[in-house]
Amino acid sequence: MKTIKFRSHLIPLILSGKKNSTWRLFDDKNLSLNDEFEIQEWETGKNFGKAVIIKVEEKKLKDLQDSDFEGHEKYESEEKMYETYRKYYGEKVNPDTIVKMIDFELIK
């Protein structure tokens, strides 16, 4: 089964249902509609539950709209967003980078 790792501060938001979207750059897992995955804490590797992907959309970072942030954490500014993703993915992140927006729901 596929796993998607989340930083520890996001786990309570996911489990409460406030966060039901994740964005991935350079998807090396080929995450697709209807995939089930383990929700894993990035720092510890501990599994916190399972979810299923219910929607997948791709677009360039520079083309994101306010509506794309529904179910996803918001950033203070566009620069903070780029700074965050460069921390995770390196300096290759730029406005033309494709982001895979993944909506999911928890499996009870």
Automatic annotation (TrEMBL):
This is ASCH domain-containing protein. SMART domains: ASCH. Residues 4-108 form the ASCH domain. SUPFAM superfamilies: PUA domain-like (SSF88697). It comes from Candidatus Zambryskibacteria bacterium RIFOXYC1_FULL_39_10.
